[in-house]
Amino acid sequence: MAKKKPIFIIIAVLIVVFIVVARMMWFSSFLVGEKSHDFGFVEVMPPKTVVAHTFTLTNKSGRDLILVDVVSDCGCTTTEAYQELIPDGDVLILPVQLKLKESQVRRSTIRLIFEGGGIEVLTLHAIGRLKDPLRVSSYPIVVKPSGGVSLATIGFEQFDNNKPPSPKFELPAGVTINPEQWELKSKYNARQKVPANWSMQLEFTTEKELGVGNELVVTVGDYILRIPLVSKAKPPIELPYSKIPPP
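User: That's the sequence. What structure does it adopt?
Assistant: Structure tokens below.
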């Protein structure tokens, strides 16, 4: 009886191997076409930039396919509506979007799940680069005319671990600023192509009402950022972008 156990084990293993091989033969390479896309370097505009691509894949399986789900491994990736039935020889058209918010390497995998358990894998790749490395936490900056302290934070990114140059500030009359030192929030990662991120907290005080035309001008190296100063909160007019001054 004991001798029969190895036979049953061998038979069970062979059955499993047969099922795996049959499934691989049945479902492998049944869609033909580009299954990966590299966006390359993407300029990122706050608060986010969305890039799009359309996969076009032909059903070469010899049978009709039914697509039951499309699943991405990242919330940064979205897909539009897709056809469920893909007749043999027909084309699956799948529009996808990749969202980038900062300077980073972004990779995303999209799984196409078919009736019967078949899976195709698509991949997206992009290297995000913020359009402007100098930015501010709030826009405009609200400075209450009570003599109390109002806060804001500026941020700067660069592709090394050196401390950024000290900012230069231009303020309207009657407004004072007390900047702290640069603080390293995250180090430069050369392998992942992710820049170092620095931040600096700013303290403002004033006794006067700030109307239209009052602004803070921040200069860090070659970058200039202009930020309106107001006494009352209001919806932002537009997002701030630093600019390299002309030579």
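The first strand starts at residue 31 and ends at 32.
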